[in-house]
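Many introductory courses stop at the sequence. We go one step further.
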Amino acid sequence: MITTPFLDNVRVPTDIRDFSADDLKALASELRQETIDAVSKTGGHLGAGLGVIELTVALHHVFNTPEDRLIWDVGHQAYPHKILTGRRDRIRTLRQPGGLAGFTRRAESEYDPFGAGHSSTSISAALGMAVARDKSGKKNEVIAVIGDGAMSAGMAFEALNNAGSMDTKLIVILNDNDMSIAPPTGALSAYFSRLLSSEPYISLRNIAKRVLARFPKAVQRAARKTEQYAKNLTSGGNLFEELGFMYIGPIDGHNLDHLLPVLRNVRDKIHDHPVLIHVVTEKGRGFESPESSEEKYHAVKSFDPTTKVQHPSKPAAKTYTQSFAHALIAEAEVDEKIIGITAAMPSGTGMDAFGVRFPDRMYDVGIAEQHGVTFAAGLAAEGYKPFVAIYSTFLQRAYDQVVHDVALQSLPVRFAIDRAGLVGADGPTHAGSFDVTYLATLPNFVVMAASDEVELCHMVATAAAIGDRPSAFRYPRGEGDGLELPKRGTPLEMGKGRVVKKGGNKVAILSFGTRLQDSLKAAEELEKQGLSTTVADARFAKPLDRELIRNLAENHELLITVEEGSIGGFGAHVLDFLTQEGLLNQGLHIRTLHLPDIFQEQGKPEKMYADAGLDAVGIVKTAREVLGIKKTEKKAAIA
């Protein structure tokens, strides 16, 4: 049992404003232990939060949050922030149904001024808030904390470029937690950081600028070069200075004696221009696990807080991600033109396994989905076969590139869309709800969804064989059905689905994706109730299997489509086809089952699908209601 005497006296940040430096150090130690203990119960992102413990304490001590706006990029850094901002009593509900979100969320707390489930948005949002502050005549500070790889995205540099051209005070803290920009820092660097943020230096710098303005341009340029050479001896800030920011750092993000004076100087002495503070931290600090370092540096399952060993999972089937990697490697073994691309998620997409087998054919472009898609388009234009593996929600950030650079030019880029459908604990920020809708609207685009892991292997092979247009195949997070995978997939006939269960002429269920198993369960229950049911696996949303849909429509009283996506997706395309062909004129009943038109809150996926009416019970209920069958007093159990 951990003891936290300092943390026990903290409800909100105002409670630590009068703490001494020694008190803050003790608080930081307790906050680290509380974070570890909380995540040991819930699982979740651990490493990033542990890396910003001291920074979180320092920011809430120095700045007047929530009036001063504190925006956390990559919101999973913010668990310690949540503990200090009135949510400690609920911190063990993280990512649980009805509990705290795993990311910052405006609706959750006034201390979360901007929601972040993805990355690289903080500087843009903070600049908007800073400009709004200036226009409103307010004096509050606006601070963006960006890191954990988020600076690899182009949007962050677009925001820096825009902010650097304004006379607006904005504080950007670069949390450099992988030593990607600067080497370890020490006392000398900390000294120069305090010096560069101090009032004498800033005043002297401003006076010098005014004086130099009276000299010829050549003298001004020479003076600026001299200053820059001097600063380059002590810092790596040339890039940020060129973008118009005052650069301070790098400083040790775990040393409060370094952090506090710099933050106070920036708060009190800088008034009319943007500043970037470069803070070097260690991701996962204080969590020494005997297990692999991968767990330390990102996310963990629940674990024993004493031993740091994660609780074992039950033996499981291969995940869809693993099945994709297996299938892609099999294709690449026989085709040297196949290239793998991911955007900072090699392990999450299975591209790490592909990279081990083909290290010179896998590219991780960082958090830069836009670049990754157009990079793939360039490869495809030169005859290579790029597979771009990106989560459904992350691909949304590259939609313009998908449309303009890929679809418009009919380039054969293959999109492997992981995390399709609902994702459980990650909640609405990561739910893959919209990819069918936003891809199937594009001319000449092939869109597929796997109903199981074997079908996924076949779809990888299908995409590899398509050489004249773009294609995409979607699959969910989590385990498959435990089926034996083929050594290599077999290309599917283009735009052709399959009948999985042939029934009578009463009900037809047309499934797109992994709702197929629930569709089969629903059919079994409907059969018990005297409603003979056919079940088909669509495989393709585009091109549609028109012959299959026509046969189902003409030979059944009711047609139900089922999909793990939003309105406007597969069901909408089926309905449009039926309308255009006049197949609704003979009294066919049709229902399109899809995710509800809301952002569903986090929960257990099976419960979320049940709430959406996309499980076997929901499908049976829909069929009975449409056919006018009254509810029985006792519901039949569905296996």
